[in-house]
Amino acid sequence: MSANTSTVTEFILVGFSHLINFQGLLFSLFLTVYLLTVAGNLLIVVLVSTDAALQSPMYFFLRILSALEIGYTSVTVPLLLHHLLTGRRHIPRSGCALQMFFFLFFGATECCLLAAMAYNRYAAICKPLRYPLLLSYQACLLLAGTAWACGAMVGLGHTSFIFSLPFCGPNAIPHFFCEIQPVLQLVCGDTSLNELQIILAAALIILCPFGLILGSYWRILATIFQIPSAAGRRKAFSTCSSHLIVVSLFYGTAIFIYIRPKASYDPASDPLLSLFYAVVTPILNPIIYSLRNTDVKAALKRTIQKMGPTEI
């Protein structure tokens, strides 16, 4: 902190510093989870990029989702590992702003991408004859590009807005990364209007895609129940179940974290909840999509067979 201006130039990420006797254990745990997350999602990216049987809109979006998850977790976990290993928890103001931008960028992009994936399932089940037109390669690129653009606008808008406010008091962030709510608590003066603006913006970027997802699945369920055969209904349900699990995990925690007043922030429990959507969810996605998806498992088997001389 500068002595002559009393303006905060760096922050301290408190994180899990209170668990003094468990720093080594936490480092090993988070390192393992991070490596598995990157390996699992990278495997999906490679499979979809190289296997001819996975060249469909569904896997086009899945590849982007896996890439997002790698970026999403890489924004927070490596710095957390550094803090656990060295005990140095300082982060410059510019570094905190950069971390917040990329975390919001990847998170908001995923919000929009999950809505695009729901639309893909709606078109496949409810509009099968028009599906090739509705989800052409150009349409997929447009949906993905829109998701990336929305993510960039949300990240840039929130970050520039928050870091244009004055920080002149305490600089300890009760979190393991530069999350919006705990950083906003360090702003000088009354932030009630700023808080309202952030909540409204978060509601827009979270609830609008979530509403589109709910609408898509309402139509999907109505169509599925009209399928006469039980086998047909099971197949239709199976194509949606993985996406529904991911949506429930991601949106459940995001709605609780972001669409609420600052006064309800709990420095003791909220970092643990943030671990769920920032660390746990990214490692679950490749597990969910690989174990519950016969096409991905078949592609993995073909890749292993190409790499080795013996048949699996």
TrEMBL record:
Membrane topology value: Multi-pass membrane protein
The protein's matches in Pfam families, at most eight in alphabetical order, are given as: 7tm_4
| Alphabetized PROSITE patterns for the sequence | G_PROTEIN_RECEP_F1_1, G_PROTEIN_RECEP_F1_2
Localization recorded for this chain is: Cell membrane
- Keywords for this entry? Cell membrane, G-protein coupled receptor, Membrane, Olfaction, Receptor, Sensory transduction, Transducer, Transmembrane, Transmembrane helix
- G-protein coupled receptors family 1 profile domain ranges (all copies): 40-289
Q: Does the keyword Cytoplasm apply?
A: no
Q: Which GO terms describe its cellular component?
A: plasma membrane
TM ranges: 25-48, 60-81, 101-119, 131-156, 196-215, 236-259, 271-291
GO biological process terms, alphabetically, are: sensory perception of smell
Determine the domain of life of the protein's source: Eukaryota
* Principal subcellular localisation of the protein: membrane
Q: What are the recorded GO MF terms, alphabetically?
A: G protein-coupled receptor activity
Q: Which family does it belong to?
A: Belongs to the G-protein coupled receptor 1 family.
Q: What is this protein called?
A: Olfactory receptor
Q: Which organism is it from?
A: Daubentonia madagascariensis
